[in-house]
Design goal:
The chain has helices at residues 2-19, 96-110, 133-145; strands at residues 22-26, 34-38, 56-57, 65-66, 74-76, 80-93, 114-119, 122-130, 152-160. With 161 residues, the protein is of the alpha+beta class. It has a domain at 70-160: Sporulation related repeat (Alpha-Beta Plaits), CATH 3.30.70.1070. Strands 5, 6, 7, 8 and 9 form a five-stranded antiparallel β-sheet that branches. Strands 1-2 form a two-stranded antiparallel sheet. Strand 7 and strand 8 (122-130) form a beta hairpin. The longest helix has 18 residues, at 2-19. It is elongated and about 90 Å long.
């Protein structure tokens, strides 16, 4: 019975020692004394939430990625302007190798500029920079005639020169 009580006491002391976390801070003087600071006294950094600008998506990491659905025209180097428009999507996959292979085949087959866009977790193979839905419909017909029967129209950011 005495051994049982002794084991329970030892276990309780060990458990208590494992659950209370302390930080040892060394003082920068000649005596090199150590000061134990309880966890409750530690200052934790504040959580900062960045404010969103219109037309921008800001993930938790704080980096800013342009929102593809922003209404504002965004000029880029070389006089190219980005605006909301339509493209024809030929294919999507979560595998980069598949997307790259499909893109090469589409360039050969259609002879047009193909856009390999990554929107996590998918790679999307698209064609065209249509400013109106009517233009996109005509392009969709042409694409389907060239063998892409499952293609469809998507609204996204397009480039206008």
């Amino acid at each position: 019975m005495r051994y049982l009580i002794l084991y329970v006491l030892i276990f309780a002391l060990i458990l208590e020692g494992c659950t209370s976390i302390s930080v040892v801070k060394e003082k920068q003087d000649d005596t090199a004394k150590k000061e134990i600071i309880p966890e409750e006294a530690l200052v934790k950094p504040p959580v900062v939430v960045a404010e969103k600008e219109p037309g921008e998506y800001q993930p938790q990491g704080g980096s800013s990625i342009p929102n593809p659905y922003s209404e504002a025209n965004q000029p880029s180097p070389g006089g190219v302007v980005s605006q909301l428009g339509w493209r024809v999507q030929l294919f999507n996959t979560d595998k980069k190798v598949e997307a790259d292979d499909f893109e090469k085949q589409a360039v050969e087959k259609l002879g047009m500029k193909i856009y390999n866009e990554y929107e996590p977790p998918y790679y999307k193979i698209r064609v065209g920079n249509c400013e109106t839905p009517e233009e996109a419909e005509k392009l969709l017909e042409k694409v389907k005639e060239n063998g892409y029967k499952n293609a469809w129209i998507v609204q996204c950011r397009i480039l206008i020169e």
